[in-house]
Amino acid sequence: xxxxxxxxxxxxxxxxxxxxxxxxxxxxxxxxxxxxxxxxxxxxxxxxxxxxxxxxxxxxxxxxxxxxxxxxxxxxxxxxxxxxxxxxxxxxxxxxxxxxxxxxxxxxxxxxxxxxxxxxxxxxxxxxxxxxxxxxxxxxxxxxxxxxxxx
Length: 151
What we know:
This protein has helices at about 50-65, 110-130, 135-145, and strands at about 1-5, 5-10, 20, 25-35, 35-40, 45, 70-75, 80-85, 90-95, 100-110. By secondary structure, the chain is of the alpha+beta class.
C-alpha cells in the first residue's frame, strides 16, 4: 500500500514502560500511519529510548542533507523503516518486516522531525518522572538541543 499522508511515532506511558536492571528502557512504541495503519502494531514493545534516539538522529541527518537514505531498525525483531529523500522536502518511508515492504508512505521531512522531537520530549519527560536516565536519554537530550537550528 502506498500513500501520501501522516506518520506519527507513538510512545506510551503504560505498564510496559520499564527499566531493566542494566538500565535499558523498554516500552510501547509504534508508528501510526495515516488512517488506521500501524507498524509494527499497536501493542509493540521494544527498546523505546534506543529506538527514538536512532530515529531522531537519522531524521536530523536527512534534514541536514548529510545523507539521502537511512535504515532504522527496531531492536526486537526483523523490522525496519527505510527512508529515502525525495524532491521538495519529502521523504519516502518503507515499513519493512522480514524484508517485505508492508506499507509505503511519502511525508514531509519537517513533519517527521517535529513528530520525532515531540515523541522524544514526551519520552524524556516520562523517564525523568520515574528518575530514569541512561546513555539513550542523554543522547536524546543532546539531539533535541542540536536539532533546534534545523527548522
